[in-house]
Each structure stands twice: as C-alpha cells, then as structure tokens.
Amino acid sequence: MEDVSMGMWVEQFNSSRAVEYVHSLKFCQFGCIDDYYTAHYQSPRQMICLWRKLLNQGKPQCCNVR
Questions:
Q1: Quick check: 37 and 47 in contact, CB under 8 A?
Q2: Could you tell me if residue 48 is inside a domain?
Q3: What is the total count of domains within the chain?
Q4: Is residue 33 helix, strand or coil?
Q5: Distance of alpha carbon 41 from alpha carbon 4, whole angstroms
Q6: Is residue 13 part of a domain?
Q7: Which distant-in-sequence residues (6+ apart) come within 8 Å of 24 by Cβ?
Q8: Considering 28, 30, 40, 58, which has the largest number of Cβ atoms within 10 A of its Cβ?
Q9: Range(s) of the domain holding residue 42
Q10: 45 touches 65 (CB < 8 A)
Q11: pLDDT score, position 66
Q12: 11 in a domain, yes or no?
C-alpha cells in the first residue's frame, strides 16, 4: 500500500513539475545509519531510544540495542 500511495503522490506532483529522483544513503533500507532520514526494522526499544536521542541531541543517532 505504501508504494501505491507514493506512486499516486509522485504522479500528481509530476503533473506540475518534473520529479527529480535522487539516491541517498540517508534513506536506509537495511537497519539504521547515523544522520538517517529513515530507519527500517527497528524494535520498539530501538524506536524509543532513537526518539530520545533525537529529542536530547537534536539529531538522529542509531541505537544498537534490541
């Protein structure tokens, strides 16, 4: 469903201007990297840790707990 929603959004946006596709390692698809945009496959404990670090440090930093 996420891919369908994203495709619909890109199609609508593309009708007003050309979509520029950019690859960035900050869109992490395999776990977590520091200064990320996305962090996939995180446990509930890791999500709490990520959120606390973002609040306290003002930047995303990964947690290596499970």
A1: no
A2: yes
A3: 1
A4: coil
A5: 21
A6: no
A7: 37
A8: 28
A9: 19-66
A10: yes
A11: 46
A12: no
